[in-house]
Amino acid sequence: MKYIDTYIVEKFDVSNLHINTPKFYTNIKNETKLSYLLLSYMYYKNYDTYLDINKIGKDENKKPIFIDNSLYFNISHSKTYVACSISTGNIGIDIEEDRLIKDNILDKILHKNDKDNRYINVWNIKEAYSKYLGIGLKLKFSEISIDEIKKNVNLVNKIYSIQNNNIYFSLCYNIKESIINNNINFINKERLIKFYQLT
Fold this sequence. Notes:
The chain has 199 residues and is of the alpha+beta class. It has a domain at 3-97 and 155-198: CATH 3.90.470.20. Helices cover 29% and strands 30% of the residues. The protein contains five helices and nine strands; from the N terminus they run E-H-E-E-E-E-E-H-H-H-E-E-E-H. The protein has helices at 30-47, 103-109, 119-133, 146-152, 189-198, and strands spanning 3-10, 56-58, 64-66, 72-77, 81-87, 91-97, 154-162, 165-173, 181-187. The strands form three sheets. A four-stranded mixed beta sheet has the order 4-5-1-9. A three-stranded antiparallel beta sheet has the order 6-8-7, with helices on one face. A hairpin with a 2-residue loop joins strand 7 and strand 8. The longest helix has 18 residues, at 30-47. The model has no long low-confidence stretch (mean pLDDT 92).
């Protein structure tokens, strides 16, 4: 079955935990370790087997991928949250929190046809799309409109209000089926710590 599984967790300190991360990271931050703990949890939940971190590499654009596997994954961080998606098709995700965007940055992200005046949401959608393409910030955001993105990929765009703060989450994917299993879940740190202790 075609599916996309997404989990979002509020950041917490995992610096004292021995969490395996791919060898290509030279500077392993707390959020990197937490990202791969979340990815490992999701992999186990879906496949009832532990993730072999050595089977993660990078493609020609340096996007982390599963090696010799038909699955895809993508990770995103905001100031407070980590999001991770696993899918049977190519995906790109981004998570952002409300913040002001300076005028000189707006010029770089807004296309003349973009109608959404929540500029952080425009950024959020375009970053998810650039990660779907695997080119990251090489995409010239101001040269593509949200409407063009919607013609190229399927788009899920959610806004969550948590503790008086808006959380923007976007997911771009290429699964053609009209019905897919697409879950977006929030997980608490206790469940991830319990999973870590069982591994």
